[in-house]
TrEMBL record:
Superkingdom to which the source organism belongs: Bacteria
Primary site of residence: membrane
Lineage: Bacteria, Pseudomonadati, Pseudomonadota, Gammaproteobacteria, Oceanospirillales
Protein name: Flagellar biosynthesis protein FlhF
Signal peptide stretch: none
CDD domains attached to this UniProt entry: FlhF
Gene3D superfamilies reported for this sequence: P-loop containing nucleotide triphosphate hydrolases
Record's keyword annotation contains Protein transport: yes
Residue ranges of domain AAA+ ATPase in the record: 171-317
Family: Belongs to the GTP-binding SRP family.
Location within or outside the cell: Cell membrane
Organism in which the protein naturally occurs: Chromohalobacter moromii
Keywords: Bacterial flagellum biogenesis, Bacterial flagellum protein export, Cell membrane, Cell projection, Cilium, Flagellum, GTP-binding, Membrane, Nucleotide-binding, Protein transport, Transport
InterPro entries: AAA+_ATPase, FlhF, FlhF__GTPase_dom, P-loop_NTPase, SRP54_GTPase_dom
GO annotation terms (biological process): bacterial-type flagellum organization; protein transport; SRP-dependent cotranslational protein targeting to membrane
């Protein structure tokens, strides 16, 4: 047979088998990934030529005249036709199964895309997630646990759930359960009431039904009410719901079971409006059938949300029903996420009160992502890729508006993640929003937030244990750089405190830092004077100071420049550090020195030499003077490595200062405050491998509009765009 199939563990292995069997000139008919490897279908060059010649031989008699009806086929014709048909079917099958655009990226993106689509999530949400896939996860194995962890974090940040059920039930109120017919409102009313009764008893609960369409609806709710020991009231169409709610003012919890109506029923708006006229606020909870198709759920939410807004307030939240009947939860969760509805409860059966549970994002997402095989009703990876290809005519106005809303939501999630994970980002966002305010408002904000009580509390809340001393005005800046706190790992925190708000002398500043801020570690941009060093020695505080190669120190009875002592230093470790966005191999050496011949300080000279990780070429040499003492050697080595990675802080601060000067007129103190915070946040984001950094970096990097490698400079630009866009879209909303 001239068409041959090869199966290898990888594409390279399969192609090697093709070359061994058919030669280098073989024609590749298909190449696709299978469960157990990669399948390649190929045909040899000789077979191609033979088939062409046979086709020409068969065609010659046909030109001479029309054969009779009983003429027998030419020798080999059946085999030739069969092989050509087989080739055609293989080619068409390959084209139909993998219709990729040229720029599509196979591998982990395709696997992750297919996994999410199979789970039921929409193409829009999947595309939005894949756009923020971190570079470090783009080439990992499809079963790498980091990829699944990233997917769950991305989904979990989008899914809002009830945080504190006890407080919600204790506060009570009027809750109206709304939704289409058959979604389970009456049963859910009983289950919801049971959650309250089990905590606080039934004296303060009342059930109300407005369903006068279904036969027996009132009786069903009355049976549940008797079992729970609570009051039940029926409101007929002509009755006054507002009056009944007024009479039930003494009840802490009132749950209203409404008439089920299709989302396409014109009476939906009128029914929701009836719930908005009472003096006592009615909180509308929408019930969604988890087993429904995503398009149906989308239509339900849009209709009921629009009617609820017209009645005076948006939907208060939602509940998922019939989860036990849903083969996939992705579609329901997707709709809840994109419409930013808070999910309260999940219902999974008919039993009262057992079959209801509090919505918990991790458990729901685990259940959604645990779906195994696909179904005939889910897209395969190839069809989805083709659908996501942008059209030549561009997007319509409706699609553009959806994208803008998606961008707003994405930026809001990034800001929420940063504010939740990094102390000081909330202050940075607030300060950024004051940039275009009048100078008087800028000054008022600064006086309120940068006063000592506020800053001391903020540093304590951030658990800052160290302090970076900026050492005056960096080159290119008109103002002295602020003091910046460090956490227990020596990482900078974006909580700048302008220098002029500190005491005037370094010894007074050190006293303030030690007594009121709890600062234990200290990093100096230049070597501190003798009085400060004495205070540091007396308090046994580790410290590190950047120094120049011309700095003279004492060693072995001689006073020499640091540059002359490099060869005498003892190697004490190697580490891979990230410097200006690149991985560098760093060799660390140390040497005991003193700043004066009779100096009592036991200092260490630290010398870090960086090399290119691939070529081994030397890239730079860095020098520090610091605390001596054998007890802290291990900690000091790690501290030196971290400060080496953050050595770019002053340059980034200067860059941010200059860029801020090109925008709206800024109060100089606000400008230097923002510059320091932006530089610290960009560095922290670049260096951290925590989940918040992995998740937010791709979005921030893309906002910079630069097709460059990840670096603190790129992230700095992206953060400025993020703050601007988030503020603008928030105001527009």
């Amino acid at each position: 047979m001239s068409v041959m199939r090869f199966l290898g563990a990888t594409s390279r292995d399969a192609m090697r088998q093709v070359r061994d069997a058919l030669g280098d000139d073989a024609l590749i008919l298909s190449n696709r990934r299978m469960d157990d490897g990669v399948e390649v279908v190929a045909v040899a060059e000789e077979a191609q030529s033979s088939m062409v010649e046979q086709a020409e031989d068969v065609a010659v008699p046909a030109q001479a005249g029309t054969p009779s009806a009983d003429a027998s086929p030419a020798p080999g014709q059946d085999r030739l036709y069969a092989e050509m048909q087989a080739m055609r079917e293989l080619l068409m099958s390959h084209i139909s199964e993998t219709p990729r655009p040229r720029n599509a990226r196979p591998g982990v993106r395709g696997v992750l895309r297919q996994r999410l689509i199979t789970a039921g999530f929409s193409a829009r949400l999947v595309r939005e997630m894949l756009e923020t896939l971190p570079d470090e996860l783009a080439d990992v194995d499809a079963d790498d646990p980091r990829l699944l962890a990233w997917s769950r974090r991305q989904l979990e940040t989008r899914l809002e759930v009830l945080d504190d059920e006890a407080t919600m039930l204790e506060e009570g109120g009027v809750f109206a359960l709304v939704g289409p017919t058959g979604v389970g409102k009456t049963t859910t009313t009983a289950k919801f009431a049971a959650r309250y009764v089990m905590r606080f008893g039934g004296d303060d609960v009342a059930l109300v039904t407005t369903d006068d369409y279904r036969i027996g609806a009132h009786e069903q709710l009355r049976i549940y009410a008797r079992l729970l020991g609570v009051d039940v009231h029926a409101v007929h169409h002509e009755d006054d719901l507002e009056g009944l709610l007024a009479r039930l003012e003494g009840k802490r919890m009132v749950i209203v079971d409404t008439v089920g109506m299709s989302q396409r029923d014109q009476r939906v708006t009128g029914q929701i409006a009836r719930l908005g006229g009472a003096a006592r606020p009615v909180r509308r909870l929408l019930l969604l059938n988890a087993a429904s198709h995503g398009d149906t759920l989308e239509e339900v939410v849009e209709t009921y949300q629009r009617a609820s807004r017209d009645a005076g307030a948006p939907l208060y939240g939602c509940l998922l029903t019939k989860v036990d009947e849903a083969p996939r939860l992705g579609a329901a969760l997707d709709v809840v996420m994109r419409h930013r509805l808070r999910l309260y409860y999940v219902l999974h059966g008919q039993r009262v009160p057992e079959d209801i549970r509090l919505a918990e994002a991790p458990a729901l997402l685990d259940e959604a992502l645990a779906v195994g095989q696909g179904s005939p009703f889910t897209f395969d990876e190839g069809v989805l890729t083709e659908m996501l290809r942008p059209t030549a005519s561009g997007q319509g106005l409706q699609a553009l508006s959806r994208d803008l809303l998606a961008q707003r939501d994405q930026l809001a999630r990034v800001m929420e993640t940063l504010q939740r994970s990094v102390p000081g980002v909330t202050w940075l966002d607030a300060a950024w929003r004051r940039r275009e305010s009048p100078p008087a408002i800028q000054q008022t904000w600064l006086e309120e937030h940068l006063a000592p009580p506020s800053m001391i509390k903020a540093w304590h809340d951030a658990e800052a244990t160290g302090l970076f001393w900026s050492g005056g005005k960096p080159r290119g800046m008109d103002w002295a750089a602020p003091m910046i706190p460090l956490d227990a790992n020596g990482d900078v925190l974006p909580l700048a405190w302008p220098l002029h708000r500190w005491p005037p002398s370094d010894t007074q500043r050190l006293t303030l830092a030690r007594r009121h801020l709890g600062s234990h570690w200290h990093v100096f941009a230049r070597v501190p004077d003798a009085d400060v060093r004495q205070q540091l020695r007396e308090s046994d505080s580790p410290w590190l100071a950047r120094t120049r190669v011309q700095q003279r120190v004492w060693h072995a009875g001689e006073r020499l420049a640091i540059g002359e002592l490099v060869d005498l230093a003892e190697p004490c470790g190697q580490h891979t550090c990230r410097l200006r966005g690149r991985a560098r191999r760093v060799t660390l050496s140390r040497l005991p020195v003193a700043l004066a011949e009779t100096d009592a300080d036991n200092l260490q000279l630290w010398i870090a030499t960086s090399h290119d990780s691939e070529s081994g070429r030397r890239r730079g040499v860095y020098h520090w003077l610091g605390h001596g003492g054998d007890a802290l050697d291990i900690d000091m080595r790690a501290f030196v490595y971290r400060q080496l990675e953050q050595d770019d802080l002053s340059r980034l601060m200067r860059s941010a200062w200059q860029q801020l000067g090109a925008s709206a007129p800024l109060d100089c103190e606000l400008r230097v405050y923002l510059a320091a915070q932006l530089a610290a946040l960009a560095l922290r984001m670049d260096l951290s491998e925590d989940g918040w950094a992995v998740d937010t970096r791709p979005v921030v990097k893309r906002l910079a509009g630069e097709r460059k490698r990840r670096s603190p400079d790129t992230l700095l630009h992206g953060l400025m765009h993020l703050l601007t866009a988030h503020a603008a879209l928030s105001q527009a909303a």
